[in-house]
C-alpha cells in the first residue's frame, strides 16, 4: 500500500511550517529537524542569497543543521532566520557551546520584491511563526509560505506565471525515503521532465513562449529569480556524501526548469540526512534526489 504522505514530512523528525503575508505577497517556509540532521548544500545559480552555507562544507566543525529556512524578501528576508534560531534556542536545540545551544539554521532566499509590497518582507516574527505552524502533516503546496510571491518564466514582453512551493517523496521497499521541497521562482519555464511540455512560464498573447530562446537576445535584470529547496532522506550519510547528494539533486531542477542555473538565478539546494536508515548507496540516494526535486518543482505550479 502506497504511503499517504508523499511529501518531505514523510521522513520522521522532519516538520514543515509556512508563514504567509498574503497582502504583501511574500512569506517563508521552515523545515525543522530539531534532533539534528547531517547537512550539505550546493549553490548552482550565480545570484544566490544565502546564510550558513559555508558551515555545511565537509571538514567544518559543525556537521548538523537543526532547521533550514526558505524565504521570500531577497536579502532582507534572511532576517526571518533569526526567528527560527530564537524558536529553537528557547527549546534548548542547537550545537552545544558552553552555556548555550547555538541552533544551526542555513537559509536561502528568493527575490519576490517585484510582486506585492516590496517594503514588507519576512522578518524575525514571521520566521518564528513559521516554526509555530510546523507540523508533520503532508506539506501544503502552491501559493503559500516562501512561494507566495514566486513567479516563473521571465523575459521582456512576456507575462510570467505564478510559482509556488512543491514537495515530493519516494519510498523504497528497503525503508529508504528520499524527499524534497522546492520554492520555484525561476527565470525559466517549468516543463514536464519527460515530454518538455511547458506547464507554467512566460506567456505572450496567452501562449507560452520559449524563455531559452528569449534569453539569447534579452536584456534581463540579474538576481531577480531563484529556485531554492531542501532534499531530505532518512539515510545515514557523511558530510561529504550529503554534499554530493545536493550536487546530484540539481539534475532534477535542470530537468524541470528550462533554462536553470543562469547568471540571473540563485539556485540553491540543501540536503538533510536524519540517519535512521543504513545500507543505501549515495548513488541510489542521489538518483532519487534528482527525481523528487523535479517532481517537487512540477508540483509547485500544478498542485
Note down, in words, how this protein is organized.
With 303 residues, the protein is α+β, with helices and mostly antiparallel strands. Helix content is 21%, strand content 32%. The protein is built from five helices and 18 strands. It has helices spanning 80-89, 124-132, 211-215, 239-256, 282-302; strands at residues 15-21, 26-43, 50-51, 64-71, 95-97, 100-102, 107-109, 151-152, 161-162, 164-171, 177-185, 189-191, 198-200, 203-204, 207-208, 226-235, 257-258, 268-277. The strands form five sheets. Strands 1, 2, 3, 4, 7, 10, 11, 16 and 18 form a nine-stranded mixed beta sheet that branches. A hairpin with an 8-residue loop joins strand 8 (151-152) and strand 9. Helix 1 (80-89) packs across helix 2 (124-132) and helix 4 (239-256) packs across helix 5. The longest helix has 21 residues, at 282-302. The protein is globular and about 60 Å long. It starts with 14 loop residues before the first strand and ends with a helix. The model has no long low-confidence stretch (mean pLDDT 94).
Amino acid at each position: 500500500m502506497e504511503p499517504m504522505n508523499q511529501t518531505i514530512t514523510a521522513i520522521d523528525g522532519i516538520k514543515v511550517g509556512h508563514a504567509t503575508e498574503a497582502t504583501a505577497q511574500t512569506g517563508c517556509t521552515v523545515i525543522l529537524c530539531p534532533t539534528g540532521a547531517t547537512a550539505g548544500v550546493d549553490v548552482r545559480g550565480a545570484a544566490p542569497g544565502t546564510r550558513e552555507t559555508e558551515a555545511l562544507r565537509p571538514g567544518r566543525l559543525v556537521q548538523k543543521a537543526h532547521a533550514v529556512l526558505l524565504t521570500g524578501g531577497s536579502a532582507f528576508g534572511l532576517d526571518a532566520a533569526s526567528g527560527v534560531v530564537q524558536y529553537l534556542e528557547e527549546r534548548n536545540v542547537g550545537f552545544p557551546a558552553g552555556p548555550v545551544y547555538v541552533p544551526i539554521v542555513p537559509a536561502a532566499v528568493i527575490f519576490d520584491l517585484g510582486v506585492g509590497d516590496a517594503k514588507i518582507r519576512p522578518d524575525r516574527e514571521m520566521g518564528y511563526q513559521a516554526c509555530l505552524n510546523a507540523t508533520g502533516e503532508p506539506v501544503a503546496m502552491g501559493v503559500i509560505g516562501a512561494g507566495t510571491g514566486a513567479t516563473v518564466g521571465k523575459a521582456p514582453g512576456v507575462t510570467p506565471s505564478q510559482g509556488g512551493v512543491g514537495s515530493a517523496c519516494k519510498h523504497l521497499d528497503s525503508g529508504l525515503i528520499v524527499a524534497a521541497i522546492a520554492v520555484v521562482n525561476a527565470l525559466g519555464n517549468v516543463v514536464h521532465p519527460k515530454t518538455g511540455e511547458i506547464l507554467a512560464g512566460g506567456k505572450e498573447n496567452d501562449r507560452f513562449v520559449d524563455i531559452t530562446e528569449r534569453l539569447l537576445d534579452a536584456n534581463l535584470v540579474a538576481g531577480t529569480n531563484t529556485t531554492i529547496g531542501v532534499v531530505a532522506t532518512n539515510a545515514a550519510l557523511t558530510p561529504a556524501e550529503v554534499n554530493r547528494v545536493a550536487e546530484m539533486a540539481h539534475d532534477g531542477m535542470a530537468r524541470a526548469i528550462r533554462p536553470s542555473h543562469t547568471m540571473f538565478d540563485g539556485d540553491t539546494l540543501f540536503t538533510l540526512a536524519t540517519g535512521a536508515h543504513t545500507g543505501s548507496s549515495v548513488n541510489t540516494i542521489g538518483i532519487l534526489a534528482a527525481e523528487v526535486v523535479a517532481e517537487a518543482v512540477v508540483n509547485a505550479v500544478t498542485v
